[in-house]
Structures are given as structure tokens and as C-alpha cells.
């Protein structure tokens, strides 16, 4: 391959982004199947939907990395973080989404600061999606807050 056409630090952001997106795919796919085990069909569907969205993000990053001349290698797949009930899973997801938001925010600012508008726009697009994810997780958690204390969704599998 030729020399990469972006700043080395931008390549670093792309690599970290790919690792986090694949980690999110693994996490949500696992949670979808765990929700099936718990008989929470709607939650399972929502986690599956999230899995697909994160997979599409990973694909956008793969395309971008090839486009700038690097091999897309994600080197750090995170272990899945689970919990014993739906609220616990969502809390873990809020942490993951917040981390991804922070990464895209930093990457966007960095690319703006070095006048790499194309990369800045790329990261900004992902940032917008992840902010929406973080808000969805938050809203979902709020919608469950009344139930949490009643223990209806306590499942001591983990
Ligand atoms: Fe994502
Ligand atoms: Fe996300």
C-alpha cells in the first residue's frame, strides 16, 4: 500500500474507533441473546438493531481506512460487560457509548485543528450517531427506572 494520506494521529483514532465499534457489536449481540434467554423479546430486538448499527459504523471505518491507504486492523476487542438484569446491561452500555462519544468528539476536534476537513466530517458523522445512541440508552433507562425497584427484571444469571 502507498503512504497513508492522513496524519498518524488520525490513523490512531480510526484504529481505536474500529476496536470500539467491533467491541460494541460483540457486546450488543451478546446482550440480544441474553435478553432472549431472559424472555425479554423487545429488549432482544432493540439490542439486535443496535448490533447492526454498530456493524455499519465498523464498515464505514473499514472503508475510510482503505480509502486513506491503511489496512483496517482492530487490535483491541474489549471483553463483553454483562449484568444480572436489563437495567444493569443498559448501565454498561451507557458507559460504552459515552466512551465512544468522547473518542469521536476528540477525533473531530483534532482533525479540525489540523485542517483535515474530510476526516473531521467523517468523525462528526459518527459522533452524531453515537450521541443519539447515548440518548436512547438514557431514555430507555429512564423508562425502566420505575420498574427497577420492583425487581421484575432481576435475573441472577450473572
Ligand atoms: Fe457505533
Ligand atoms: Fe453506539
TrEMBL record:
Entry EC number(s): 1.16.3.1
Entry's family note: Belongs to the bacterioferritin family.
Record lineage: Bacteria, Pseudomonadati, Pseudomonadota, Gammaproteobacteria, Chromatiales
Cofactor: heme b
Molecular function per GO: ferroxidase activity
Keyword terms, alphabetized: Heme, Iron, Iron storage, Metal-binding, Oxidoreductase
PROSITE patterns associated with the record: FERRITIN_LIKE
Function comment: Iron-storage protein, whose ferroxidase center binds Fe(2+), oxidizes it using dioxygen to Fe(3+), and participates in the subsequent Fe(3+) oxide mineral core formation within the central cavity of the BFR protein shell.
Top enzyme category: oxidoreductase
Gene3D superfamilies to which the protein is assigned, alphabetical: 1.20.1260.10
Pfam family, one: Ferritin
Annotated ranges, domain Ferritin-like diiron: 4-148
Catalytic activity from the UniProt record: Fe(2+)(in) = Fe(2+)(out); 4 Fe(2+) + O2 + 4 H(+) = 4 Fe(3+) + 2 H2O
InterPro entries noted in UniProt: Bacterioferritin, Ferritin-like, Ferritin-like_diiron, Ferritin-like_SF, Ferritin_DPS_dom
Protein name: Bacterioferritin
Regions annotated as coiled coil: none
